[in-house]
């Protein structure tokens, strides 16, 4: 009979005896070296605290028991958040050891830890080693804290099954697991680096932003592998698998950083080209506006000159019309005045021509002929226009 088989038969026998007995009795003894001899302690589960800790009544009191050689994600740590699948590990332990469950406990070299929790392997009546069962479903990982190594191999063997099946903390379908996080980060890097850069600065900038976001996610996953050596998520991977994942991420991160440099350079060039284009458009718009303003000024000046010339011509025309009107009025007034003048008397009859002079006979002595009498003015005091009769001797008012 092998050691594993003997370990399982002993707790079953003990549990059967415990159910019959009215009291629980201790079956352990210590060797001089402090190691626990073959023997199991019967107990009754009071409650489950988290995935690897529960309260069991044995040896006459309720005692907190920490499962040997297995570690599950934290749910009650005062300085840590609830870890990935921590609640599921707690539920699994609760399903195997509900309150009142009869169990058998086995111990190793060191019986308590620094928190005064009892370190034990816990068996239930169907011979199941609870410590190993948590590992078998991938909700707990094997841990070896010397000198307690008694159940490490059995827990490790159970965990190997979980690794083969890729379940629990190794399940990439569970979003919080490190395999899932690394797979998501790798996929995001691939998508971001294969995205088209685009022909405009905004499109290229969007591609760069996608690469930056993917790098942030991948870097966080990479740091989780490095910084989480003591966390269940990383322990679940194992050193070899963790190193492989880290190398894969390192390669993708390096490639993404190179692509980001290229895209960033493209963004800068496109932004410069866009700035130049906008500057050229602005200058063209400025020149066009200046030309428009100048054209409007020239048109306005021409329109103003035309308006002034039109007004001048109109003023001259108005002045001529006014002068013509005034002249017409003056002429009409003069005609009216003349029409209203008294009638002009008939001119004096023209005197008969003098008889032809006698042949000249020189006088013996010269003599001066008397001046003819002056014609009498028929319109004394008249100073207006005069219309003279033939000969220019008489006139009438015009």
UniProtKB/TrEMBL annotation:
Q: Which Pfam families has this protein been placed in?
A: SNase (PF00565)
Drop me one GO molecular function for this one. nuclease activity
Keyword Signal included in the entry's annotation: yes
Matches recorded under InterPro entries: SNase_OB-fold_sf, Staphylococal_nuclease_OB-fold, Thermonucl_AS
Coiled-coil stretches, from where to where?
270-336
Q: Which residues form the TNase-like domain?
A: 39-172
Cleaved signal peptide residues: 1-26
Q: In its UniProt entry, what is this protein called?
A: TNase-like domain-containing protein
UniProt organism field: Arthrobacter echini
From which lineage does this chain's organism come?
Bacteria, Bacillati, Actinomycetota, Actinomycetes, Micrococcales
């Amino acid at each position: 009979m092998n050691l594993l088989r003997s370990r399982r038969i002993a707790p079953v026998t003990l549990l059967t005896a415990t159910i019959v007995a009215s009291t629980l009795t201790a079956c352990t003894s210590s060797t001089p070296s402090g190691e626990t001899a073959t023997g199991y302690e019967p107990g009754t589960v009071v409650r489950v605290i988290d995935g690897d800790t529960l309260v069991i009544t044995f040896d006459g009191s309720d005692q907190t028991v920490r499962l040997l050689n297995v570690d599950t994600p934290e749910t009650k740590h005062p300085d840590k958040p609830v870890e990935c699948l921590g609640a599921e590990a707690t539920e699994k332990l609760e399903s195997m050891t509900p309150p009142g469950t009869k169990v058998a406990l086995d111990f190793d070299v060191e019986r308590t830890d620094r928190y005064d929790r009892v370190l034990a392997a816990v068996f239930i009546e169907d011979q199941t080693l609870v410590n190993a069962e948590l590992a078998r479903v991938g909700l707990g990982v094997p841990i070896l804290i010397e000198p307690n190594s008694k159940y490490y191999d059995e827990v490790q063997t159970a965990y190997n099954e979980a690794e083969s099946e890729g379940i629990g903390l190794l399940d990439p379908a569970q979003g919080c697991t490190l395999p899932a996080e690394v797979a998501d980060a790798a996929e995001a890097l691939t998508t971001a680096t294969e995205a088209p850069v685009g022909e405009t600065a905004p499109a290229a900038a969007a591609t760069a932003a996608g690469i930056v976001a993917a790098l942030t996610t991948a870097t966080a996953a990479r740091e989780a592998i490095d910084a989480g050596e003591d966390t269940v998520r990383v322990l679940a991977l194992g050193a070899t698998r963790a190193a492989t994942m880290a190398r894969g991420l390192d390669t993708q991160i390096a490639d993404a950083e190179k692509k980001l440099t290229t895209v960033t350079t493209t963004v800068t060039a496109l932004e410069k080209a866009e700035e130049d284009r906008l500057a050229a458009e602005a200058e063209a718009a400025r020149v066009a506006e200046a030309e428009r303003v100048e054209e409007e000024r020239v048109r306005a000046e021409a329109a103003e000159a035309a308006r002034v010339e039109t007004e001048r011509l109109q003023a001259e025309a108005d002045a001529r019309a006014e002068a013509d009107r005034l002249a017409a009025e003056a002429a009409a007034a003069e005609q009216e005045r003349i029409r209203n003048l008294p009638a002009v008397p008939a001119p004096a009859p023209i005197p008969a021509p003098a008889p032809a002079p006698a042949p000249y006979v020189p006088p013996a002595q010269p003599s001066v002929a008397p001046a003819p009498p002056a014609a009498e003015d028929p319109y004394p005091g008249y100073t207006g226009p005069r219309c003279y009769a033939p000969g220019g001797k008489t006139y009438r008012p015009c």
